[in-house]
Hints:
This protein has helices spanning 4-8, 114-120, 175-178, 189-193, 210-234, 240-258, and strands spanning 30-38, 42-50, 53-59, 71-80, 88-90, 97-109, 122-129, 133-140, 159-164. By secondary structure, the protein is of the alpha+beta class. The chain has 2 domains: 4-186, no CATH class; 207-258. The longest helix is centred in the C-terminal third of the chain and has 25 residues, at 210-234. The protein is globular. The chain starts with a helix and ends with a helix.
Amino acid sequence: MPLDEYRRKRDFTKTPEPEPKVGKKRGKALFFCVQKHLASHLHYDLRLEHNGVLLSWAVPKGPSLDPKTKRLAMHVEDHPIEYGDFEGVIPEGYGAGIVMLWDRGTWTPSVDDVDAALKKGDLKFTLEGYKLKGSWVLVRTSGRYAGRSGSSTGSDGRSWLLIKHRDDWSGDLDIAEFAPRSVKSGGDFEDILAEDTPALWTSNRPSKSGDSGAMFAAIIERAARLKADREAKAVNSTSPTAHKTRARASAKAVRKRAAR
């Protein structure tokens, strides 16, 4: 059944992610998005609307605008259409981390039969997003396409490559570094974490070692400062003692909950 794998991996009493349901077509054009996800490792999730769900690939290093650069894209479970608007903190369980809506727009397949292209392992398409535009291809590198459209079973068919075709929108610009922020909120990870009511992490957060651990520690620190500054501005300016005390307490609370 559609979205069974998505449903199996999540506890919807804990995650703020949309519940699994096959959606109606959002409009005449097909929707696409890329979500930047700091989980156990930083990666980018490419999602393409097809038959009421979002076909999904996890791209560890993010999309590249350089046609000579082939980026690994791991085919993962389909996601609900509503997931395309999701940005926030997954507090625990599968995918625990911070999700940013890094890009969104529309996509146009270059073939009439998307299912046949997926089965063949060669899907050409055009993107019209804020950051990603022009002609692209997803090419399966090994294994065999299995199951219904957009799904694969076991490890077969999971490994693909995302490649930019040479056109007016290609080049050697590192788009992930040049445009790191959300197209939904305009913020970065620390801004998302520092929102007034985030579901702060309780388990399965990124490893505290290595690059991801260092990145998460820095994000927590910046989030704590952002939240403290926001709350400090709300304190009566005639009470400088209360101003400083509340700011320090707020920052401490963010760090303490994130460290649990």
